[in-house]
Specification:
With 95 residues, the chain is an all-alpha fold. Helices cover 46% and strands 0% of the residues. It is built from 3 helices and no strands. The longest helix has 24 residues.
Length: 95
Amino acid sequence: MGTGSRSNKALVQQARPALDNFKYQVANQIGVTPPQDGYWGDLPSRQCGAVGGHMVRSMIQIAEQSLAGGGAGAVGATFTAPRTTGTTATTTTRR
């Protein structure tokens, strides 16, 4: 998939350059040689998946540290609990 036909969109478009930079940093850390032309389609899916997996792990770690730090941080400020619509859940206990 070329750079002009992205199917995944950043929720905050201004974050796209930072996410791309983060992707290249993670690739270098785990020993994957990033493509010079920016086209990742010629790399095996195992390598691309490893980069994406490490990105997710890093982002989760950052979010957990932010939440554990006691402050709301960037994650707490944007997190909203899911809402139920229309029905109320009930729990029954069998004896």
